[in-house]
Amino acid sequence: MDHKPALLSESELIEVFNYTKTATAVHIGEEAIIQMANDAMLQIWGKDRSVIGKSLGDALPELVGQPFIEMFARVWRDGLTLSGSDTPADLEVDGEVKTYYFNFEYRAIKNAEGQTICVLHTAVDVTEQVVNRQALEKAYLQEQLLIREQAINEELASANEELNAINEELAQSQEELVSTNEQLEKRIQNRVRELYQSELKFRALSDELAAINEEMTASNEELMASNEELLVAQERLQITFEHLEDREIALRLAIEAANFGTWHIHSVTRKFITSARLKELFGFYEYEDVTIEDALAQVTDEYRPYVAEKLESVLSGDGNYDVTYPVIGFHDQKLRWLRAMGNLKSDKSGEFSSFTGVVMDISELKKDDERKNDFIGMVSHELKTPLTSLNGYIQILQLSAKKADNPFMISALDKANKQVRKMTSMINGFLNISRLESGKIVLNKSAFRLDELLESVIEEASLLDASHHISYADPVQIEIYADQDKIANVISNLLSNAVKYSPENKDIQVRSVFVNGTVQISVTDYGMGIQASDIEKLFERYYRVENNNTISGFGIGLYLSAEIIARHNGKIWVESQLNEGSTFYFTLPLNT
Ligand code: ADP
After folding, report:
1. What is the CATH T-level fold of the domain 260-361, as seen in this structure?
2. E-strand spans in 211-334?
3. Is 114 helix (H, G, I), strand (E, B) or coil?
4. What is the whole-number distance in angstroms between the Cα of residue 575 and the centre of ligand 1?
5. Residues within a 6 A CB radius of ligand 1
6. What is the C-alpha separation between 253 and 39, in angstroms, rounded?
7. Does residue 373 register a pLDDT over 70?
């Protein structure tokens, strides 16, 4: 089968090309008109033979915008060969645009004149390799990335750990720092406080020092002033001493001139120091030692308890000492009336007191008094006799006036009778006082009903004076043992004073109550009252309040009353408000 080789027709040539696995196409002109494309190329393009004769742009419109069409044009114009490997191209295959990768070549085929007659286009689809490679590369990269990431993670973890450790350390350090700070702060505070306190103390000390300094300066000045004062005082003391000496001499002279005896008693040791004159007054000799008891023994029995009690109460710091008493001289047995006045002065130590005083012989005064009392007694007695017969005549006349029913006579004789009674009571007062003074007053005690006595005295007083209303409410019904006449005298005295010293028509109230084992009788009036300065002297003999001269009286009623009550071991006193009235009280013990 030998046959003569002949040149292949165009279609046979194309047929040949179809068998090459390499995709091949031939393009003409600047627009790359497809003259020939084998099946491999059409497969790549995803087209059929209808694209033959079309420009590349028309056949594959998806290439517009990609560099290939422009590359063909250049190759045609410049007679170049351009190639690429693994070059991506976006192609529409089966209606889907995908990226494929190619190894390709655009080769300008030239004629003898060097003119480009066509462009040979060959291409090998390497999409699979490229994709595989890319996948491999990607996997490799990912692995690398992973490794890197792991390494980084590990580094990060260790860095984190380190960081944590550092953080912990930091936290610890911070805590330490805080506690150190706190400690430091505390120490600083303590130190500051200490410093502050020291400063305060320092300041206080400074102040004190300054104050002490000032005080010292002031004390120094005071001391100097005191020294000066002391000098002056000393001089004055000297002068006073001299005066005192002069006065002592004067006093001694006066005492000697007045013939006073003097004494001094130590309140604790009871040492009795006396002057020679005192011893003489008690009937002792000058050289004899005389004790308090010796002196008291010379006081008459009647007065001794009274004098001893007075002396003791003054020595215990109670009351004044002004007593009058009779003594019988120890050797001469002479009766002397003495008046002793003394003064208790406590020693600076406060441990004892000195009781000093003078005693004088008042026997002559007493005798005068006695003579006066005798005279009063005698006169009163003498006056009583005519008064008694006057009283008798008035009573007879009263009887006959009543018989004759002569009202004028009756009233005149009534008045005369009242005046005689007043006079009788006055004379009785004088008689009583003279008896009292001469010690001739004796109590004549008997048991009697006090309420009945009060009623009868009130009745009698009402008879004498109808201008006042005397009330006697809630009388205590009690029998007492006393001198009825003298108690009647006291009540009658108080009633007549209440009448005398209060205006007419004023009430007078008599009351009797039990108080602490005594019966207390009071007479209240709403008259002129008595001022405080007079009250204490009211019960003295012959004492009368100065402005009362218009009201008759002798100042003996209260004196007598006080004496009578004292002898019954009772008490008498007055409470009064000037211009408002007075209440006179007296008490009588129930067991006497
Ligand atoms: P007389 O006789 O002066 O009344 P008394 O001894 O009875 O003497 O009274 C002494 C003085 O006391 C009186 O002078 C009078 O000043 C005063 N006196 C007594 N009782 C009262 C009284 N009830 N109200 C005011 N003064 C009184």
Report:
1. Beta-Lactamase (3.30.450)
2. 261-266, 272-274, 321-328
3. coil
4. 13
5. 493, 497-498, 501, 525, 527-528, 530, 538, 543-545, 548, 553-559, 582
6. 187
7. yes
